[in-house]
Design brief:
This protein is mainly beta. Helices cover 13% and strands 41% of the residues. The chain is built from two helices and eleven strands; from the N terminus they run αβββββαββββββ. The longest helix has 19 residues. The N and C termini lie far apart (58 Å).
Amino acid sequence: MRKPFLIAFSLFLASAGTYAQKQEIRDLDITLNLSDKGSVIFNEYWDINTGPTNTEWYLVRENLGDIIIPSFTVLDGDTGGRFVDVGEWDVNRSLDEKAGKSGIVHKDNGVELCWGIAPRGDRKFYAIYTMVKAMKSLNDYDMLHLQVVSPGMSSPPQHVRITVRSKEVQLDTTNTRAWGF
């Protein structure tokens, strides 16, 4: 009679370990540094649990119009190590083949900024990239109109902070209007 109980208990422990490794985004901290030339430099901090099966993490950037992303860098938040930029990203590579690497998938409607997540589990990453032509000049103001956090993420972020900075101008309520939704 003990064998079935031990097997059931062992299965319970195995499933509990898998459940504990559920994908989650604990903290997402995004800083946008505005340039007087119309570019925006993104610095994103991701504190996540990768989940038990993912091989990569990626940021969806769509509806870019004439905006281009010429550079993309990923740093390991635990070691400070810089990931190797492989250029065009191959989503079909294995976990080990993606480890320590980053790249971009170009699509008809935008890009995916990707990086390998090995080893899986609790991880921290910094994603740094530039969007050229992201700022637009209007008759009365300059405008930045971007979706910064992608909808439909498999795990919604528990905490998000977005900071917008400019070296040229102190941004405050007297010269800046901001909307978020």
